[in-house]
Amino acid sequence: MELEKLNRITSIILLGIIAYLSYLTLKWPFGVAILPRLFLFIMTACCILIFFKNYSSLFGKVKDIKKVGKLVFQDINISRLFLIVLLIVGYIYLMELLGFYSSTIIFLEISFIYLGERKLLTLLIIPLILITFIYLIFTLWLYVPLPEGILL
Questions:
Q1: Higher pLDDT, 18 or 57
Q2: Which of 64, 97, 109, 121 has a C-alpha 20 to 30 A away from that of 129?
Q3: Contacts of 64 by beta carbon, 8 Å cutoff, 6+ apart
Q4: CA angle 44, 42, 27 (to 5 degrees)
């Protein structure tokens, strides 16, 4: 099947799912429905872009889905992928021991260093901005309790 046709079929199916989910959010109170509606709007925009896009700039004008798969997966290092998955499992385990905020900072620092980031400013600023953003959204705005552990 051609990649263009597959993209169009997928975007039509996703637009149907998004329409159904949007209908469900109409019954929710306004404050509760803001974030889901925002995500659904973004997903709708992405589906429309995919539907009208003739070819992917990443793959050029490749039409065969098998060729696209080979292009995407040709440079995957299995041992590196395994270590990342192991790091994610460790993050989930640490979350219950140390709490969400502490384990997220540790996970991000180790991930950045493993993936090759060496700038001290980036290693310090990005996790702190992300943690602050998550705290503001989930704790202060949505009142969602995040896992608490020994530290936070």
A1: 18
A2: 97
A3: 2, 3
A4: 75
Q: Exposure of 103 by Cβ count < 10 A (0-12 exposed, 13-18 middle, 19+ buried)?
A: buried
Say how far apart CA 123 and CA 112 lie, in whole Å.
7
Tell me the two tokens of residue 38.
């925002």
SS3 state of residue 148: strand
Q: How far apart are CA 39 and CA 26, in angstroms?
A: 14
149 pLDDT tier (thresholds 50, 70, 90) = confident
| Helix (H) or strand (E) segment spanning residue 103 | helix 100-114
pLDDT at 152: 61
- CA nearest 51: which of 11, 23, 13, 109? 11
pLDDT tens-digit profile of 59-85?
A: 555 555 556 555 555 666 778 888 888
Q: What is the pTM of this model?
A: 0.55
CA 141 vs. chain centroid, Å, equals: 21
Which two three-digit tokens encode residue 6? 């597959």
Judge contact between 2 and 59, C-beta under 8 A. no
Q: Which two tokens stand for residue 135?
A: 């705290």
* Nearest-angstrom CA–CA distance, 46 and 39: 11
